[in-house]
Amino acid sequence: MCVKGLRFLTVLCGLAASGMLQVSGMRIYTHGNVEAVNGTDVRLKCTFESSAPINPSSVVISWSFRPLKPGREESVFHYQQKPYPPVDGIFRKRVSWAGDIMGRDASIILQQVKFTYNGTYICQVKNPPDVHGAVGEIRLRVVTTASFSELLYLAFAVLGGILIVVFLLVVIWSCRRCKRRRQGQLEENVEAPRKERKDPTAW
Q: Strand 60-67 to strand 74-80: parallel, antiparallel, or no bridges (unpaired)?
């Protein structure tokens, strides 16, 4: 029994060393909460990591939607070798592919969001044989106007852009002014000896 037990442990160690007993599991990364203004487009970002090599022909991506109010889960988007947008339901002609399989990106874009889009969006990725793992969830909140934090961020972005433009204009103006000064000094240095030179015939 001891000999058999040792042999069994040896075989298990060998399999583990060769990677055959590697535990597979997809890891999905999403932003927990996303806010979008009614009527605008919003990107639902979903990235993933897999313990198996990425094979574009076998990767399967599924997005589904769970509304705030009690109701059935609805399919939003499907990808398998190519995008398959929904042909019916509230997301018909409102979803586009924004991901990159080799970049491990399974993101989508919701176009012209409506208040009925409030709810939880579930991102699931399978990369056979790596088909197990937690799903990613995004809670979307559609609002009438942008929140104060978003408006503040936008204001800072615009102000930063204006300051950069002003700074560049000042740098360009300063460079041109320095160049003109140098040219003026060179011209003065050239003209000075001419003025000091006297006529040799004069007494």
A: antiparallel
